[in-house]
Amino acid sequence: MSNLDEYGGGPGPSADVLVVTTNEVPGYRVDRVIGEVFGLTVRSRHLGTQIGASFKSMLGGELKGLTKTLVESRNQAMERLIEQARARGGNAVLMMRFDVTEAADLGTEICAYGTAVVISPLAG
């Protein structure tokens, strides 16, 4: 796993479902709006990571263990979002967003959501 994969993510360019944070995709038209889709994951806190983060927070700096956990969680939520769009017949998700909240002090809830659509290239 490269540093890029450890601290970032998202679907690769060859994914069959395009995910964008915009309202539209340049060069494409929306043929059909399917509706809202989301992918959700809830992660509990790992005791070792929490202890390490507590010590690190006293000294300052990035909490790399927590960063990696959040990246993994966001990627899993994104994968589930894509699965939902694909299962409903979509080939794109527009206006994708993440929502992150605490889940009853037991962990972190990560939700990726957006609008599933069917798009096709503009004739040109």
UniProtKB/TrEMBL annotation:
<dbReference type="InterPro" id="IPR035439">
    <property type="entry name" value="UPF0145_dom_sf"/>
</dbReference>
<comment type="similarity">
    <text>Belongs to the UPF0145 family.</text>
</comment>
<protein>
    <recommendedName>
        <fullName>UPF0145 protein C7C46_12035</fullName>
    </recommendedName>
</protein>
<dbReference type="Pfam" id="PF01906">
    <property type="entry name" value="YbjQ_1"/>
</dbReference>
<dbReference type="InterPro" id="IPR002765">
    <property type="entry name" value="UPF0145_YbjQ-like"/>
</dbReference>
